[in-house]
Amino acid sequence: xxxPILIFLPLAFLFVTATSQxxxxxxxxxxxxxxxxxxxxxxxxxxxxxFYQRGNGFYVGVFLPGTSNKIAVWTYGxxxxxxxxxxxxxxxxxxxxxLQSAQAQDAYVATPIGxxxxxxxxxxxxxxxxxxxxxxxxxxxxxxTDTILGGQTLSAEQKLHSSASVxxxxxxxxxxxxxxxxxxxxxxxxxxxxxxxxxxxSGRPNNGTNVTLHLxxxxxxxxxxxxxxxxxxxxxxxxxxxxxxxxARIDPDGLFRxxxxxxxxxxxxxxxxxxxxxxxxxxGICGLNAFCTNIDQxxxxxxxxxxxxxxxxxxxxxxxxxxxxxxxxNPPASYDMQPVSITxxxxxxxxxxxxxxxxxxxxxCRQDCNCEAVAYNATQFCSKQKLPLRFGGRLIGxxxxxxxxxxxxxxxxxxxxxGCEQKYTRREILIAVxxxxxxxxxxxxVSGLILxxxxxxxxxxxxxxxxxxx
Length: 470
Prior knowledge:
single chain, mainly beta, Agglutinin, subunit A, Hepatocyte Growth Factor, 4 domains, five-stranded antiparallel beta sheet, 2 helices, 35 strands
């Protein structure tokens, strides 16, 4: 397929947006603070660089000031604590952009290669530092966080990390990587970049190490192999539209989406492209010890039996035991094994047994104090697991696989109580009985005292003559 003329235009044209092509230099003597002058605007005012607020603190980044919650497209130090209101941004003598905060040491937001002569917040959403020859010596486009914009690329080995939530810009659970084999792929954070952990990819591997992901100003999203081979067109080119910008992002739910936004109408962000997977495909979306299940266009995160959500308001936070697990010194009879059907988890088998019946498999786990769950399938394969269990989901077209989880004993399996809690119940009964006995003794003592005083009073009221000596 022939390359469009756009590929061969000078670099400056890659930063053209439909709203403006101007450039407004920023004074290197300017200082930003969250509570006074907080940002530098692009010529059209669509983008800004500076402080934006989340909760009771502030972050530094590129954002859209005209949106209701100041949607951020690039953030510096996203995993650092939010900044206080007395923070400042300024250029030092060499042109490095310095963040000063009372709660931390000075930090360099931008460390250019050379001395900064000028800076600009462009209408493309790119914050740029220039040298005296107007050469780019640092730009935010080279350091993407979770988003790319029109005119921006993702080169081989570059990653986008999702945010923790729509209100928390810290690093979340998922990432998108432009792999060195020419494939764009999505993974849970902290896992190997292998097929066992990836939950979506663009396909067509082994196309060399120079394949890049491109997003143009008209919303054309594609993979390009040099010099001009289009490997995957996720959307179609359409020509820049006035007042429209496009944002490609890996969202907190692990899905990679392309959004459009009309900067004049300031309406909703319609999705122009979405990877074709269901909501439960991102592995780990529900956190530890929980499994994902699709509900219409949404999803839910039920906990394993004997577990409760870590945070009721955050289903992605996973689940923890709602009873206290006892040590191996306790007898196996203090536990029950509860089934969870048609689910799939990461294989973390520490001991595998074969040719067992289902009951034998379950009992093998019950008798093993190190076993906290066991998987059993129709081939009589029994695999013992330790907690936590992760990457749980409903098994589509299941293979009759069952997971059994060790919880409290059979008498209290439904509410998660175990032998430990029963000990506390017996202790409470003993305390109640002892208290009752003590109360009864006290009442007897009081009754005896009252009876004694009553008899003394009666004695004093008897006629004294009958007791005198003659």
